[in-house]
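Recap from last week: sequence in, structure out.
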Amino acid sequence: MKACWMTAAMLAWIGGLAVPALALDDDDLAGATTAGAAAPARFAPPPRITGPLPYFMRDDAAIEQDIIAITRAKPRLIDRFTEYSGRLRHTPYRFSPMGEAAGVDPDPLWNVQETDCLAFVETVLALANASSLAGARQLLNDIRYSNGKPEFASRNHFMEAQWIPANIKKGYVRDITRQIGGDRVIWASKSYTREAWEKRRNPHLIPLEWEQVPHGVAGIPVIPLDAFPELLPRIPHGAIVSIVRADYYSIPNRISHLGIVVAGREKNSRIFRHATKVWWNRVIDAPMEAYIERLKKTPQWPVTGLHIMLPVEREAVSPAARKTP
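Predicted structure tokens:
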């Protein structure tokens, strides 16, 4: 059985539309676009691969050499973060490409051959904080698991209650939503109760007991969609943007999708770099203003707004991960 990028590939029927009950790449609801694209993937050719060769086309030795070169050339973490996000562009999309290499989810612990939206961000974050391939693999486990040990039960399955607070506490990211949104920010909460957990759809696809999941209420600050495009220029280069949707009782997550923002060529323009299974089944660059406009037109699972984080240079990481080559 494949676990989804937050916990499991479970479906819940909402208004006649099938959506994963824990998380869904929002492109399934909103559609996606890339610069210059005017037709769906089945009609238009995929974007050409330009620039450095993507990592899914390289072997480990070539990736190692590239990591060494980037570490030496780019001392700032944000520059490494966006650089590595570019190295994963064009990577083929596959739902839940990583697991624990055994047990409930036997997919590999590390996978740059395929990715989905969360795996893309996690892998880039691990690479940016490391200076070797072995270090990146080690840090990926620390990012994905509460205790750094690759076990299904300790994976950060729930974005609002686990992934975000855990990685803020560990020093990988900081929340900049209020800094960008100011007094327009609202609070998006999610309640975790035994009753809701036991009534989730298709529970056999999520092999976690109530004692193994978050209890109580978790919440995050969110900038409403109607604040954009006005606030779009405030989103910094290298920000991690998550799509936060309406609170549905049977869906234990409100975050449905995430990606990385990079500065566009035009002044104040922003590009949303993300893994999508709708347009060409790969990591693509989408003009963010157009992408947000699409998000405003998703009545099946309405979008509440955006949550925004920024990668942080960690002070206390393992010597094996940050050893200078």
